[in-house]
Design brief:
The chain has 187 residues and is an alpha+beta fold. It has one domain: Mog1/PsbP, alpha/beta/alpha sandwich (Protein Transport Mog1p, Chain A, 3-Layer(aba) Sandwich), CATH 3.40.1000.10. 25% of the residues lie in helices and 37% in strands. The protein contains four helices and eleven strands; from the N terminus they run H-E-H-E-E-E-E-E-H-E-E-E-E-H-E. The strands form two sheets. It has a seven-stranded antiparallel beta sheet with strand order 4-5-6-10-9-8-7, sandwiched between helices. It has a four-stranded antiparallel beta sheet with strand order 1-2-3-11. The longest helix has 19 residues. It is globular. The two termini are 32 Å apart.
């Protein structure tokens, strides 16, 4: 039952990601939780160079969510999702989704869930990756002709999930800078 429920949630999440980026959506300004973050290099030069903008160089808008803040790069749109935010670029189909869910999942359960996702999608074997000062498990697979990479870890009994669709964290300077801009709120 647990596996079926997880697979259903993952399929639902994938559908939301695919259809969410097609919807006309203005940036979330009604909550008043956006502030401008600008310094250093502009994002267009970062996209055309081999350099990766650092958090301090990322031009964009700071999104303040319940459990974390992130700087959304200029030229990207966002929408709220359960426990986080989906940031996307409509023209390219690139998506970055970050969620912190209070599922009370253990580290072993988190790893098993990601292994099942990888197996059901013919993904790469799990790798350990350090992001945000935490060790995440990661897998990459192709779904609907689009590369997707999932990162998942448990911190303070909460599951932190980072999902990238399109260009990967390693090859998309904006996504890398946005991920590196994430600041987890103290609890």
């Amino acid at each position: 039952m647990f596996k079926k429920g997880f697979l259903f949630l993952m399929v639902l999440l994938l559908c939301l990601m695919v259809f969410g980026c097609q919807a006309e959506s203005a940036p979330d300004t009604e909550s008043g939780n956006e502030t401008s973050a600008q310094a250093g290099t502009d994002s267009t030069s970062a996209e055309t160079s081999d350099e990766t903008p650092t958090q301090a160089e990322l031009n964009g808008t700071v999104l303040e969510l319940e459990k974390f803040t992130i700087t959304k790069a200029d030229g990207w749109e966002s929408m709220d999702v359960d426990g986080g935010v989906q940031i996307y670029k409509s023209l390219t189909g690139d998506i970055l989704q970050i969620q912190i869910l209070g599922n009370n999942v253990t580290e072993e359960e988190d790893k098993t869930l990601l292994e099942n996702l990888a197996q059901s999608n013919d993904g790469t074997p799990l790798e350990q990756v350090t992001l945000l000062g935490l060790v995440f498990f990661s897998t990459t697979f192709e779904s609907g002709g689009v590369e997707q990479t999932y990162y998942s870890t448990v911190n303070n009994s909460e599951q932190i999930k980072i999902q990238v669709t399109g260009k990967s964290y390693e090859s998309n300077a904006d996504i890398k800078a946005m991920v590196e801009s994430i600041l987890l709120n103290e609890r």
